[in-house]
Arginine--tRNA ligase (Tepiditoga spiralis), 566 residues
Amino acid sequence: MINIKLIENILQEILVETVSKLYGKENAEKLFIQETNNPTFGDYQTNYAMINAKVFKKNPRLIAQEIVDNLEKNDVIEKVEIAGPGFINIFLKKSFIENYVLSTGKEKIDFNRDISGDIVIDYSSPNIAKPMHIGHLRSTVIGDAIKRIYTFVGYNVIGDNHLGDWGTQFGKLIVAYERWLDKENYEKNPINELERIYVEFEKKSAENPELLDIARAELKKLQDGDEKNRKLWKEFIDVSMSEYNKIYDRMYIKFDTYYGESFYHDKMGKIIELLKEKNIAEKDQGALVVKFPEESHIPVALVQKSDGAFLYTTSDLACIDFRRKKYNVDRLIYVTDDRQQLHFKQVFAITDMLGWDVKKEHVYFGLMRFADGVFSTRKGNVIKLQDLLDRAKEKVLDILKERNPNDENIDEKAEIIAIGAVKYGDLSQNRTSEVIFDWNKTLSFNANSSVYLQYTYARIQSIFRKANIDKLSNNLSLTTEAEEKLAKTLIKFPEAVLRAADAYKPNLLTDYLFDLAQTFNSFYSSTPILKSTDIELNSRLILCEKTAHILKEGLNLLGIKVLNEM
Ligand code: ARG
């Protein structure tokens, strides 16, 4: 298969050649091409002349002029203009745009990234015996999208569900299980029952603190390998996992590995030894702590308590050590809410002190709130994922029934639309800010929603059903302004994907897809498609086909399915 390059990179190569000739190879390295945000400035531009004015001790407009005058003839650039303090604005040739559109979906995209190292992404990671809440929804959905996007860019990505399957909750659960379990409830809805008895434990132990000692003893027994407690622990994991898997299946989420916290429990001792050996950790009132340089402003991290117990930090260090040895790691990505920022700062800083050479990224997100009062009686964070998905589906069913009461596939459709809407409602917002979940917008047929994108996709499928043509010829000729605008939007898909990848922000991709759908729909309303003939008909259908292709591919990168009919 041939690879198609990003347009930015194609232009970069052309300009680098000119610049190398003029100013030498070493001065061509800092040449970057950007999309413009206003078509009067061309399609792309570079600020090379401006950032090099000081280096060359020349007026930037003069540098720009020299570059423009020496540009070799090529098949890509129609014209260049010098603007403002020294921007070079680049206008693409129509034939180049046409060919680029034609190659969409046929050729693999070369994103020009070094993809030789693996990426491990740590996401979802719920805590065993507790229902998944909205925070885990965000981690799951954002993590899955980032995984898909990086895979598309070409990386080998390993998705790890770092389950919270080890910790003090198990001692308490074992005590509660033996005393207060309602068998019938447990069979019907195990996680709910485990949650109930856990709350029961908290209540009872507040009155009777002796229970805490008993729980501690049970935890110790579990950690020492007591057979009965291990069996119970295993059971808690199994019943929880089978509940989580129902949700993952429903949301088409797949992980490659499930190394939970328990996997690292016998690997933490070695980390402590290493930290001591390298004088990174020091004793502090019986405990072991790591102190950071003052200018880093990172508070002290506890890595071992005075009773010998390890901590969350210790476990994440053991986890990084494991990953860097097991994989050919290029980078580690963690997706959690923003309350864990300090935790990861500390862990990453210690990793650097240990001299472990891995890139690390904490991809954090804000809280999610609900705008329409549906869930307002309860705090956002305790909303169960299952309830949210069910609620979304009910709402979609109502809308679909109203639109088409006789639709036979209504249930299946409603499920796909609802899952898409919940994911998109999350992914389309800037992940670092607080998210307000607004049902009206989320389920709207004409706002920035997955419903609108799915609807646009289905509309194109219906055009093809009506067109009744088996094969389009590989012939595209752009004549109207609306066609050209749509074509210019289509060719920017790879760059939008890369922007989303580099910033770990799926909303940069949703913004692009929304823009594409809007551009398509204005093309659709201004341009006769099925009423046109010959090359016009062929060209317009090609634009339809490519739009549908990118909508489908783009939604797939967000973990959202399309429908042929809505
Ligand atoms: N289980 C944790 C929680 O629910 C998230 C774990 C994130 N991953 C990690 N390697 N620390 O808050």
